[in-house]
Amino acid sequence: MELILETLGLTESAQLLSLSAPGWGANLLRGLANSLKIAFGAFGFGLLIGLFGAYGKLYGGPVLRDLLAIYTTVIRAVPELVLILILYYVGTDLINQLSAALGYGRVEISGIVAGIWVLGIVQGAYSIEVLRGAIQAVPPGQIEAARAFGMPPMMTMWRVTIPAMMSFATPGLANLWLIATKDTALLAIVGFSELTLETRQAASSTRAYFTFFLAAGGLYLMVTLCSGVVFGWIEKWARRGQPSLREGRG
Amino acid sequence: MIALKSLLQPHRIVMMALFAALVVWCAITLRWDWIPKYAPLALEGLWTTIWIMAVTTVLGFILAVPLGLAQAIGPWYLSIPARSFCTIIRGTPLLLQIWLLYYGLGSLFPQFPWIRSSELWPYLRQAWPYAVLALTLSYAGYEGEVMRGAFSGVAKGQLEAAKSFGMRRSTMFRRIWLPQAIRNVLPTLGGETILQLKATPLVATITVIDIYSVSSRVRADTFIVYEPLLLLAIVYMVIAGLITLAFKRFEVQVPH
Q: What domains are there in chain B, each with its CATH number?
């Protein structure tokens, strides 16, 4: 192992990236863990907004529909970086005013919670559109059949609409998940210690910019490629029972 | 006018009145006295944002055509590198790519005396070439994937017809294949261009003065938080709206 590193001239890089004290590998991995936590939380929060938003857009009253249209249009037209700043300040202001009204002092908000709140609102706007399209693609007869059996609306959603729309929604949701993992990098600008910020700190204190940025790029790429595999499984599972195009042709 | 009629429904009139009241309230109670002082700088920043977006979109698209072509019909020694390039660009955050190029190359170049004495050095010392390079590569990565689909989506019969007319391969590509492919992905291209606009504020992190960095400067100088950000959001929405309109007009002109 050491011989291979020696011949490739990578001994120094390996030392810099090692997990124990003089190396910065542990910092990078901690940053990756933070990034993934924020991405998971934001993706989940976004899905929640997306599900209710899609229902509102499809079945809601005219006022609700217009409000949701404004939300999705504005969020998708403004750069994520600007939204992150606005939502971050609005969020901290609101919480501080709330705690002042309740008689407490200023509250310190953890980076992870703020990141989830900020990115979740951004993700929500995109997932409303993905889920709306997927719900519309479900044959209406299936939902009508569920109603005719006397299922209450929530049960129809859980038992019929969501399972039936999964196969249409998975590709869009996979894209959203990838956007979520990459958007966590933007939180570096607000100062959360996720992967990109940890990388920059490691790089600027050791002056080995290429080593660390390439290593971080490798970590992000690994997350992306693994997610691709996992979403492939999910899509296969969501399509179970549906005739596949390839088999149909043969 | 159908559009006007749909705007004049009662609930929309109420919402517009509320919105107008909100705008008036913002104009009166929020602080806008910093605008005259920063207006020249803001215009300069706006110009930087627009030209960086335009230049990187055009260069990126030019780069994306061979990338898409290599993936669609290229032999393996061209298609594999093209596919890996697109995967790497799409799999890593743009901020990381910008910082890799700026800090990485920027720290590497000064070590070579022949680069320092070359005529390119005055440019390489500045930040904008790295910003342009990073954004161009990023656009090319996303667009190469789109163009791959576009090239393979062109109906085979059209290409065979062109061939049977005795067109040379280059003529066929220029007159039939590329125009057909572009026509098919015009809506996607519009969306990607707006994504590119939304990527431009990242160049502020490597000291390029664009419209975003002007707003952060106002925030740092005057401690006014919301007003510059609100104005900034509106500026981006207006530019995004203009891009959408331009692509709509373009799509109408293209025959179907």
A: 1-6+32-253 (1.10.3720.10)
In this prediction, residue B115 carries a pLDDT of 76
The whole-angstrom distance between residue B29's C-alpha and the CA centroid of its chain comes to 35
How many CB atoms lie under 10 A from the CB of residue A137?
A: 12
Does residue A102 form part of some domain? yes
Q: Has the ipTM of the complex gone over 0.90?
A: no
User: Is B88's Cβ below 8 Å from some Cβ in A?
Assistant: yes
**Within a domain: A204:** no
Beta-carbon separation of B229 and A85 below 8 A:
yes
Measured between beta carbons, which residues in chain B are less than 8 angstroms from residue A78?
Answer: 198, 233, 236-237
- Identify the closest residue of chain A to B9 by CA–CA distance: A62
Cα distance from N-terminal residue to C-terminal residue, chain A: 49
Q: List pLDDT tens digits, range A5-62.
A: 666 666 677 777 776 666 788 888 989 999 999 999 999 999 999 999 999 999 888 8
Number of domains chain A is built from? 1
CATH number of the CATH domain containing A111: 1.10.3720.10
Asked whether the beta carbons of residue B236 and residue A81 sit closer than 8 angstroms, the reply is no
Residues A75 and A125: beta-carbon distance below 8 Å: yes
